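tl;dr need the bound structure. longer version: we got a ligand (1-deoxynojirimycin) that a collaborator sent over and nobodys looked at where it sits. i said id run it. heres the input, straight from their email, havent touched it
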Amino acid sequence: MSRKKWWQTAVFYQIYPRSFADGNADGIGDFEGMLEKVDYLKWLGVDAVWLSPHFASPQVDWGYDVSDYYQIAPEYGTMDQFLQFMEELHRRDIRLVLDLVLNHTSDQHPWFLESRSGLDNPKRDWYIWKPPRNDGPPNDWFSTFGGSAWTFDPQTGEYYYHFFFPQQPDLNWRNPEVKQAMFDVARYWLNLGVDGFRLDAVGTIFERDGHPDHATGDHLDAIYRDSRLAKTKAEQRKANRRWQRMFRHQVDMPEVHDLMRELRQVVNEYPEKVLIGETEDVRFYGDGEDELHLNFNFPLMRTDRLTPRWVRLNQRERLSQMPPDAWPCNTLNNHDAGRMMSQFGDGKHDLQIAQVNLALLLTLKGTPFLYNGEEIGMVNHLGLKVEDFRDPLSLHAYRLEVELLGCSPQEAERFAIEYGRDKCRTPVQWANQPNAGFCPADVKPWLPVHPNYAEGINVRDQQEDPGSMLNYYRRLLHLRKNTPALMEGDYQPLDENNRHVFTFLRRTKNQICLVALNMKARPAKTVFPYWLKNLRCVFSTHRKEGQLERAGFLTLQPFEVWIGVVESF
Ligand code: NOJ
Ligand code: CA
């Protein structure tokens, strides 16, 4: 019997509801669509769903601007449909984790409408209001999404603070009523039976008391420009450091950890629930038991190419920084980051590289998070036009490209697509039929469908093809589930100077598993210690499984994934 918790052995699958499946034929994904795909999720072999926000929202930031935490967005369906979706997942042993946005609400949330209605309103202090300074904003802070972090409200003559878009006012978490109101929200969904929360933007929940100026004299647009024009990694890093200095009073305040401990207590009132932080900061693990259960290893994906050296270094740093009992959590993309095929490819071997990278994600120590559509090898949609843009960040970047960098409209479009997030949020491609089977042919999907659905990048075609990416995902997920060492084992790197092959062990008391990933486009050898001689191949992209390897080394084909289990030890 495994002593690990379900969220340690599970593979999570992120559903971006708007783009997953449209059940009622209006071009927008919804619960009806999700419900139809529950069997597909079971067939694929995932264990838990992380659902991006499904709450009522004006959809400025596509659900990350909640106007009612107790209601379902009407275009996604009804509460009954939500409950049915959860029940059908649970019936299949798939857990459901919701996306809880704590830092801010929508500016249409009744709390904010009340708060802005008058200086004496009881909810005034639920948000962060300040009087003007010299007829301008109260301080020099920026919003990470562009422009000042303060928006003037003529009704009361004061400014309110927003780390993100102006339509996403930050809650004042120093007010105990705010905390109680949000804890009530958490309890409401836990009482309904959800299995936990992914916590949005946890690092932004508190700001420095007194709101001092960043006083760097820098401008966010200048950082954008310099980072865009950076020619070297060093220049890029310099721009990142400027960003960090500029935002140092707005993120990662120590107070947030007291709050996370309190939230953990709330969640602990229920058995077996999980909290996952949208943060890479290992301090959110607390002492390993008292804050968040999982925090994303985002540094792993911060590269153009995953190489053995990169991954070894990442693992060494990450695992040594974490408290002893904390559990890692790995991912290579989500609705904010580009698609794996596009992000880490070399333009020639994108498919093979994506396969190696998936094997990496599913064999590294920790809980893996997959993003919908990755399993068929969807790519970034770079063919979008300005009029297709739905992410306000794409439009913001477009304006900066034209006004700040003097780009032509075509160039601006190209860069804005890369900068914005629409490129990886296009509808999931279900079949080789108009609109990829996401919605009917005569309906316009909310974001254009990538045309490569007609070239085999769709679920139905790939289900029938044993050699497809989809069946590759399925095989690997199945293998993981049947190989305890891959789910629970320790991590031990081997052959550490090898520049081509990333080789490591995962081991439990009863099983030792060796993983060898050739991350390069040429054959390469990996060697391991003498006692690892009786290795039974349980998975390979290139050779027959079941074969016994006794040589103490392996010569791998370009981009070969090889996984073996030690027969006797
Ligand atoms: C992180 C979410 O993943 C992103 O999509 C959103 O724009 C911001 N938080 C603000 O909620
Ligand atoms: Ca719909």
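gonna send this back to them w/ a short note. The CA atoms of residues 78 and 473 lie 32 Å apart.
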